[in-house]
Specification:
alpha/beta, single chain, 7 strands, Rossmann fold
């Protein structure tokens, strides 16, 4: 059953992060799978020298080289550049991984507020990770709740059980005037989309059923 798969997946994710540090998390196969480190290359816009230096620093965290991480980092840059074109001021992310997307947004110049909905143990790791980004780069967004004007979710919301998915859609997604979601229903998850949005295939697909939702 999907619920059994999901519980096992997230239990393993939490267990691995609790054993990891900012310096070694990316060496762990479970983390590599959850972050899709072998994702297909995404064609992002050229970075300026400051952005490139910041991205290289972010990519070096976790214990792998930039070469090892290049596809996952490129994918996040691609989506971050797309989000920044909308000029959001308060972003909410559903399922934040280790906090990499928030870090990359900041590296590319985002100075607004940000909040991540996630499992408490994962939130704890995200804050440690993002604190390390602030120490190294001197830039980062304020992590706080509020009236969000933009919602993002990458390969998380689509996997949730229907009851959990419904809560996020009703309480977060529908209350954000704009958003971008990489929708990744698999392992038995429902693929029914219950809110008005533009639906298109993910531009560079890591899975044939992936969709990109925007509004």
């Amino acid at each position: 059953m999907h619920s059994d798969w999901l519980k096992k997946e997230y239990d393993q994710w939490v267990d691995i992060l609790e054993l990891s540090t900012v310096d070694n998390f990316a060496r762990r196969p479970m983390v590599q799978r959850m972050l899709s480190i072998n994702a297909p290359k995404h064609p992002y816009d050229k970075l300026n020298p400051l952005e490139e230096s910041r991205i290289n620093l972010i990519a070096s965290l976790g214990g792998l080289s930039f070469i090892d991480l290049r596809f996952d980092v490129q994918r996040m840059i691609y989506y971050a550049q797309r989000v920044l074109k909308e000029n959001p001021t308060h972003i909410v992310e559903i399922g934040g991984g280790v906090g990499q997307f928030a870090a990359i947004l900041s590296a590319l110049g985002y100075e607004g507020k940000y909040y991540i909905y996630d499992i408490p143990q994962v939130n704890k790791f995200q804050r440690i990770y993002l604190d390390s980004i602030y120490d190294e780069l001197g830039v980062f967004v304020q992590m706080e709740k509020g009236d969000f004007d933009y919602c993002v979710s990458f390969y998380a919301l689509g996997e949730f059980e229907d009851s959990v998915k419904y809560w996020y859609i009703e309480n977060i997604v529908k209350k954000c005037p704009h958003g971008l979601i990489a929708w990744n229903p698999h392992s038995g998850a429902s693929d029914v989309i219950t809110f008005p949005c533009k639906v298109e295939p993910e531009p560079v697909q890591s899975h044939p059923n992936n969709k990109l939702l925007s509004w």
